[in-house]
Specification:
The chain has ten helices and two strands; from the N terminus they run βααααβαααααα. By secondary structure, it is mainly alpha-helical.
Amino acid sequence: MEPWNKLDIAFPSVISTVEIRSDGCMELHLRCFLEECEKVLILLKSKVLQTEIRIMNALLYVFHHRLRQHKPYRAFKQVEQCVNRLQNMRLEAAFQDIKEMCPKKFEKLQGSEFALYEVPSQPALEWFSLKVLGASKLMLSLMQYCSKAFLLALQHLNWKEFIILNVVLSGVLSRLWVFSRGILKTLVCLYEKMFPFLQDVSKVQNLTFLKDFALPADIKNFLGPSYFEMLQKELPKVPLVKGVQVPARSALLNRFSSGFEQKKERTEPPKVESINQKSTSEQEKSFDLGIPVSEKRSEGLGNLPGLDVKALFKRPCGATKFQPQA
């Protein structure tokens, strides 16, 4: 196993700082190195990044038993493994330790063109370089796993399977991809600023810590062609359907609302009343039971006289009580 690929790299058991006389060039290298360290620390301590990691862990915990064989879930599990390994590397503590070894103020001695600074020793800088190389490789793998899981989530969205889950997964994966890309860029810039400073320190104190491994002068070639592919690559997009134009972002809600209204019109057509229907309804409202109504019968029964409704309400002549016949 390569030394940069180890999870826990042992700190060298030698003196961690050395006092050197710095000139203008070394001071410039040290300042650039500290600025890049601060940028990486800001990204690693970001609350947004920590929130996304907690959301990822919660999703994996909730859907563990139900979606263990779901392909986007399994790819999302690989993303979690990269994030856990990154946390186990304890990068924040390593950056904080190397930052405390550097001087906080840059002041020259009175009447002298040089300044004495207490800076990290060569073994400490080589140990820190291994941490940076391992973190860069891990960030590159994290971006690849995020892209893979994102494409699988989009594929299942097109199939209309687990729509809510895949929408949430695609959002978390896209944000993790952006964060890992930003951290990878800052790590590459940090190594490029640190390598000249390491050469300056090694000239003063030649105490090599790495015996069987030589630190690469160019970290971009060390990461390989996948690094350039990931930097030029954009976030995957939803595949387009032939004959369908994608509207602008501002018109997205209008598209959804208009589609909903059209669907509602198709399912529930409007009721249009004709003039005859209105006239019949008005006649029914003003109908009087006392008016004689002629009932139309079928032609087979013959022509029968009309029925008078008022005749039904008249009392019969004679006694009101019923008298049985003798």
